[in-house]
Amino acid sequence: MPPVNERTIYDLRASRNHHFMDAMRYLGYVQMAREGTRRIRDSMAEYNLPEPQFRQEALHGVVVRVVLQNDHEVRSRSSDRDVAMHFGVEQWKLMQEHEIKIAAYTFRNGMIQVSEAQRLTGRTWATSKKDLERMCRKGIMIFVAGDYSRDPKAHYKLAREPDSKE
């Protein structure tokens, strides 16, 4: 909505229906105006990714399109062979299929949370939590607690860090 465009997207706000936006805020679906674009920008910066690129286009009216880029240098790409070699072929052979998925994801991303393991394996949250705890007992993973009970920053990481390929 004018006057918002690619240059003013972080600073200005304009909604088509102000009453609807007030209702959404009252119901708790949004916290404040301009929250989404600022949160995208801040999240990208937190992960050392390039800033979002907003581009205004005329496509059946005026549209502002956002492009989010994943900097290929931030996360190293690895093959299944690299992952298997990290754990050792013998250890890899002893792991169940869902454990291999969890271990490979953690190897590639540096950490995993229970919800990510749940989505990855298709198992329930409680079962995924038990899977991660079992992997800790096996010495494959370690638990990194958050600052308080039920902290969303709590996660699991590999017991032994992957060798860097520099």
TrEMBL record:
It holds the Pfam family HATPase_c_4. This is Uncharacterized protein. It comes from Cereibacter changlensis JA139.
